[in-house]
Amino acid sequence: MVVVVALVVVVVGSVVFHMVSPWWWTPIASNWAYIDTTLVITFWITGVVFAAVVLFMAYCVWKFRHQPGRVATFDPENRRLEIWLTAVTALGVAAMLAPGLVVWKQFVTVPDEATDVEVFAQQWSWGFRLPGEDGRLGTSDARLVSADNPLGINPHDRFGQDDVIVASGDLHLPVGKPVKMVLRSIDVLHNFYVPEFRAKMDMVPGMVTYFWFTPTRTGEFEILCAELCGVGHGYMRGYVLIDEETDYQAWLQEQSTFAEQYAGRGVRAASVSP
Amino acid sequence: MANITHRPDEHIPPAEVPDVHPPHPHTWIGRWVFSQDAKYIAIQYSGTAIAIGLVALVLSWLMRLQLGFPEVFSFSSEAYYQFITMHGMIMVIYLLTAIFLGGFGNYLIPLMVGARDMVFPFVNMLSFWVYLLAVLVLVASFFVPGGPTGAGWTLYPPQAILSGTPGGQDAGIILMLLSLILFIIGFTMGGLNYVVTVLQARTRGMTLMRMPLTVWGIFTATVMALLAFPALFVACVMMLFDRLLGTSFFMPTLVEMGEQLSYGGGSPIVFQHLFWFFGHPEVYIVALPAFGIVSDLISVHARKNVFGYRMMVWAIVIIGALSFIVWAHHMYVSGMHPYFGFFFATTTLIIAVPTAIKVYNWLLTLWRGDIHLTLPMLFALGFVVTFVNGGLTGLFLGNVVVDVPLSDTMFVVAHFHMVMGVAPLMVIFGAIYHWYPLITGRMLNEAMGQIHFWVTFVGTYAIFFPMHYVGLVGVPRRYPEIGDPAFMTFAVDGLNAFISIAAFIVGAAQVLFLFNIAWSARHGRDAGRNPWRAASLEWQTPQVPPRHGNWGDDLPVVYRWAYDYSVPDAPEDFIAQDDPWTPQKVPA
């Protein structure tokens, strides 16, 4: 009866591993605790089903194992039982789907007060752009990318002049304020993924994607690229720092705007050329 | 159940077309190389698939060396991405698809429906040779400058055809796309054969609702593949044009390493829709034959009819149909319109219902059975455990918002290996132990088989169950090494080393299995006729192993379904499908 023992051990072992193993998700740092809740509900429902199915199978194998004289029961169909099982399954599935869709509705509904923050990806580094005083990001185009304009900002768009450019370096965000992460890539697919924020989204060249979240605690969080983007994919890391408002403002003062950077380089280029 | 079992008043209609004997080869080459016999083509398909599968096995070892022991075996990122790409592509397409449809489909369909052969034997032969060519083109990509493509098995553009990806600007990606195109051409020839044979060449009395679930599974999967593969075909052709002719189907305006490229106007997401319109049905193209075969294995070795046969047939058909409207659950975080998430999460979770019904019916087939713990039964039990595990984690990933944190992490890798890697392989192993006696006339060695089962079952669970937690911690997939970043609650390197060691041991057990196949062909115990005392038609041929033309002078006549096991008052505990026995007292 090795098989029966093995099946029971698989169930018990899986549950014990789940309970005692030190590998669990990282503490959350965003408003998406609902996602964690839905995940836990799913763990419970699926865990119970897994244990029930495998233990029932183990029982069958033990109880109905071949022994001399044993004859199987001829039992083609049982409509009532089949309908009953279908209904219970449908109910369990609905119990997982319903909260999932409710949370998804929140996930895709960006609050009006969310600030746009642009993440810019290329092989294999991150850049960032914050709207300036006017609260709007200027337009951009991959065709405008050059050494002087690494993010491809449209120099003729007045909304872009005061945009804060962090072409390389860390992104800072204030704690407790919703942000809409506007995602842009100029070469291949990337994915902006911070495990503590739970949310992630692909960055697709030729289009702008987004997601939103509210940082809920201060700290330094690692950005990982989560969509295969070539040989540097595993090493495409960056950092987001969630600051208290005062620290954030201090950091912001040190950054330069697009107009400052672009004009500065323009002047330098002009002074060299004659 | 009148349409399933035989009643004395049942009239079996006469054959609609005269019996046609397949062409008889007169040359050695015609018999053993360019054979048109589906049984021999099945062996050719399976042998080729297993051979290229060994390459995928070795690649998995290499990638596990890197993941488990990054300090010791530090491969370049290029090499690592080539390992994972080729491993995935070979396993999904060139091994699993080919062996289920080209291998089991070719061997079992004609025998199980009572046909002499596939209806188009020449096209069937051609199907294998084009498949072999596809495999050779794939293998060739290992030997060209730059090596094979490292774009990931999903081949997402733009990176697949750019210089930042191995093989992107070399021949690697070109050969990969050409090989896929060839594979699809070859498959289409075989697939049309399987569909027409099932629909047109069933013997007298073999109604659709008397076919074994194996045939139902392979038949439905083939229909799906004929509808799904064209999407991949056009995607491959378009990407080939983008790469070679400078078109921009999938290529927007790009700046690569500071340099403006001449592409513009295309959309990378269009490729993803085409890929997954193929790719999701592909999961079920592999799973449905496995569902069918495992139903038959459980029934035969538990000496009991499949419980709820009609529900099982409908579940297969419904799963097949639904699988065409769930594809974008692979794309929840791809940047497509977020409202698609509502639709695709709902359809995806609905598929769980017919799938769960299948699981219940397997369990209820065991219930009050007479369970013989033979090797096929052991693998069937192993399948149910891994499939249920992998299916349930699918409920995490299908439920759109739960997918967001888990998408693109090792959780996904663990999930799909459990559900469409290990689970179908369990069925393939069980099926080989089950039908090897039919094919060779000998039994596979039991002791080697027991070692193979236990190492594979326990080992694969030890590999893939903990891997879910690596993903839960937050480790993205397709990272050659993660290191120990601050977000981790607990470093995963020890777990990764454990998984790698388990993978090496499981791999070694597969080598033992292949040795068993070779060894038993000459030294195995003589199987005799119908060693499992199975009711289905393939075991009832006049000669065992079946000869060319399968049925001798006269085609069999079928009187019942394939699951008359332990029928009350029957002389034996099974009644073959071509046995006209009826009970003395006919129930009213």
TrEMBL record, chain A:
Keywords: Copper, Electron transport, Membrane, Metal-binding, Translocase, Transmembrane, Transmembrane helix, Transport. The chain crosses the membrane at residues 41-62, 83-104. It catalyses: 4 Fe(II)-[cytochrome c] + O2 + 8 H(+)(in) = 4 Fe(III)-[cytochrome c] + 2 H2O + 4 H(+)(out). Its EC number is 7.1.1.9. GO terms for molecular function: copper ion binding; cytochrome-c oxidase activity. Residues 112-254 form the Cytochrome oxidase subunit II copper A binding domain. GO terms for biological process: ATP synthesis coupled electron transport. It is found in: Membrane. GO terms for cellular component: membrane. InterPro entries: CcO_II, CcO_II-like_C, Copper_CuA, Cupredoxin, Cyt_c_oxidase_su2_TM_sf. This is cytochrome-c oxidase. It comes from Roseovarius azorensis.
From TrEMBL, chain B:
It is found in: Membrane. Residues 26-559 form the Cytochrome oxidase subunit I profile domain. Its main location: membrane. Gene3D superfamilies: Cytochrome c oxidase-like, subunit I domain (1.20.210.10). GO terms for molecular function: cytochrome-c oxidase activity; heme binding. Residues 1-22 are annotated as: Disordered. This is Cytochrome c oxidase subunit 1. One of its GO terms (biological process) is electron transport coupled proton transport. The chain crosses the membrane at residues 40-63, 83-109, 121-144, 173-196, 216-241, 283-300, 312-333, 339-363, 375-398, 418-439, 451-475, 495-519. SUPFAM superfamilies: Cytochrome c oxidase subunit I-like (SSF81442). It comes from the Bacteria. GO terms for cellular component: membrane. InterPro entries: Cyt_c_oxase-like_su1_dom, Cyt_c_oxase-like_su1_sf, Cyt_C_Oxase_1, Cyt_c_Oxase_su1_BS. The keyword Magnesium does not apply. Belongs to the heme-copper respiratory oxidase family. The keyword Manganese does not apply. It is a multi-pass membrane protein. Keywords: Electron transport, Heme, Iron, Membrane, Metal-binding, Respiratory chain, Transmembrane, Transmembrane helix, Transport.
